[in-house]
Design goal:
single chain; about 170 residues; alpha+beta; 5 helices; elongated
């Protein structure tokens, strides 16, 4: 795509310069004529010697380019300042993102138990179920209620179980 843009731009400039050359060629009598100019500023009078009109056109064209460059100069400085400001914002945001990612990693590491704690944290659902069953058989008069333990799976390899917790009547 970039090559086609370069070719398109090149073709555009060739066409523009072709029209300019055609215009100059068809109007050779005007461009090869000589004219002298006099400038009167009220205080001092200037006299410009005879020059070809083509040279005068070229001088005014160059003056126009210089004026256009000067007018775009402030816009370029504003654009550079804006780009610099946005780059510093990007750098600050990137550093903050890296800091937050580091905090996430440390928080994930803090949630994982140390090797010695792993055995005490794991729950054996079958053992818990046996303890609850024994507690309910000893006191048949107590009312039991089911908790949401069926949604919690302490051991991923085993089936989930429903915990029954005895409650006392008041």
């Amino acid at each position: 795509m970039e090559k086609s843009m370069k070719k398109g731009t090149l073709i555009l400039w060739v066409v523009i310069f072709g029209f300019i050359a055609l215009f100059i060629f068809q109007n050779q009598t005007f461009f090869l004529a000589k004219n002298a100019f006099h400038l009167n500023f009220g205080i001092k009078e200037y006299s410009i010697p005879e020059l070809y009109n083509a040279v005068l056109v070229l001088i005014f064209f160059c003056c126009g380019l210089i004026i256009a460059f000067l007018f775009s100069f402030s816009a370029r400085f504003k654009a550079k300042r804006t780009i610099k400001k946005l780059n510093t914002t990007i750098a600050a945001d990137t550093t903050e993102m890296d800091k937050l990612k580091g905090e996430i990693v440390t928080l994930k590491d803090a949630d994982t138990p140390v090797d010695g704690q792993v055995d005490t944290i794991k729950l054996d659902v079958n053992t818990t179920q046996k303890i609850v069953d024994e507690a309910t058989t000893e006191s048949p008069g107590d009312k039991t209620e089911k908790t949401g333990a069926d949604k919690f799976n302490a051991n991923p390899g085993e089936d989930t179980a429903t915990l029954e917790v005895p409650t006392e009547k008041k």
